[in-house]
Amino acid sequence: MNAPAQIDAAAPKSKTMRPAPTPEGLEIIIRDERFNRDAKPRRWWAGDAFGTAWHNALSATFPRGEAFFIEAVKAHRAGADPKLEAEIRAFVRQEINHTREHVAFNRLAEDAGYDIAKIDKRVEQLLALTKGRPPIANLLVTMALEHYTAMMAHEFLANPSHFEDSDPEVRAMWRWHAVEEIEHKGVAYDTFEHATRDWTPFRRWMRRSVVMLIVTRRFLFNRWIDAMDLLAQDGITGWKARWGLFKYLTVTPGVLRRIFPAWLSYFRPGFHPWDHDDRALIGKYEGEFEAALMPAE
């Protein structure tokens, strides 16, 4: 069941923070979809080990990671205006559904013979380090990682080459996830602005910039290690694994190369995720999705 969250776009923002450029009339829709409940081939990307390894590595982090995002945002909802409060509720519901579907996807990866328990354990250990940390630090990390998911979501939807040869149901799941990441891409950021409404603009900019650099190093390093481990399970090691994964990420289809300008924009003073309004990609997906559900005449 697809349910648009009730968000009052006219609700006033706090007088102590600038109005966020979240588009008027934006609907954060909870699409309660289910995917990947049946057996699939071992390599989802038309037999491509590198695309399969990268996306399996990403998916293995999502169940614990998205639970962390939910708690980080919810920790700062006190005092939020009605609009932001509604957006946080919708964000939580979308992320809960994402967790459920990536658990199912990860189970398929395991059934196909991939051992992803090591990845899950590493994520668990990293999240354990956040215990006792100031809640705002967790929100800063969440905000940076939400920017990563939004950048990749845009790229996946804007450039069909990323998924054109993948298993159809796997492709549908990733596109569904991408649409919802775009829809709620401003929620963690707006929550941060609410939580730091008494900070100076310079302090906000400095903190989020430093955290993005730290998150980027850890994100790329850990996902590289995870993907290399999965490639080794496919019998691909050494220079062949390193070059193949590097080529996949930076040349063709080159998701990391292509998102670099959007990553760089995060460091601009006054940045907001909705500075780039890419809702057209959501409309394109919805049109294709509805057409796919139409009965044959």
Automatic annotation (TrEMBL):
Keywords noted in UniProt: Hydrolase
Region described as Disordered: 1-21
Pfam family for this entry, one: Metal_hydrol
Main enzyme class: hydrolase
Molecular-function GO term, any one: hydrolase activity
EC number: 3.-.-.-
Keyword Hydrolase: yes
Keyword Hydrolase included in the entry's annotation: yes
Name listed for the protein in its UniProt record: Metal-dependent hydrolase
